[in-house]
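Troubleshooting entry. The earlier prediction with pyridoxal-5'-phosphate gave an output that would not parse, so I re-checked the input for stray whitespace and re-submitted. Clean input:
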Amino acid sequence: MEELQAKLAGCGNKLIKGKKRIILCVTVTDMLRKMSTEASSIAQKLKTVLDKIQVASDKRPQALQYASPLLVAVSKTKSLDMVIEAYDAGQRHFGENYVQEVEEKGHDIELLDHCEDIKWHFIGRLQRNKVAKLLGVPNLYMIETVDNERLAKAINDTWGRLNKPAPIKCLAQVNTSGEESKSGCTPDSTLELVRYIKDNCPHLDLAGLMTIGSFDHDPKAGINPDFQTLVQLREDVCKALNISTEKLDLSMGMSADYEQAIVMGSTIVRIGSTIFGARNAPQSKATQEEAAEQAKEHEQDKSTQEEAVKSQTSKMKNLSID
Ligand SMILES: *Cc1c(COP(=O)(O)O)cnc(C)c1O
């Protein structure tokens, strides 16, 4: 890079006469310099995050020291070049929120050629009508957002039809904060969902639990109750299924709170803006449409659930009258 810059700067003096061409050379040199600092900054930011992960890991109580936390670099709305940049810096696990976007990136020829060992985590709201598309993405490693039985079954059946050598890793997503805007099953129904997957979905490998948690909690204000809920749920689930807690991952912690999450036992952290910078709006028109659809389906699911609760309540009322 430096050699190229020197050559380009030199060309202004030696080869090309005339003001315009010199300006062009200077501009190209500036561009190259800018590219090289941006490139090293993703690598630097990754290194900073990995160092902090290490420090937080060392602070964990002895019982939680059994695993090093996995860093998932969340590349939603970020360019393929940035993904490749991070890959070149050694990062292998990447998180995406939109099926459309992970499909475009995952099928890209240059990426397939250059990033053979990439591992995609799907961390967005997943609609059943997009399951087939998502499961067709090469190097899909894990679906972190399975939050209901119908979705689990759809993934199971589709993965089964694809005749893959191993089941697909999934996490049960829990809405620990109870906020309506967040996906996830309720803490109360987590065990039921986990049991359903274990008993009915041979093509899913239930690898753990995931939560987003409330954005309002300030990590400086003390222990995040959402993380505490997820830790407790893992205890409960493992006890009920008679498996050791080490068998189930906990995916919790984002840019603002991953250090605390790790100290509390997180084994997967999903970090976006700290590595890649502030998020952009969804890039392609298709992704924007998907974002809108996701929001709409979420609304519909909510009203279906409300209907179910209402009819259940009225049944119960009728019963008590009889
Ligand atoms: C966007 C996103 C992240 C990353 O968030 P940052 O605050 O940018 O680190 C993590 N998890 C999920 C589910 C996300 O949607």
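This one parsed fine. The chain has one domain: 41-311.
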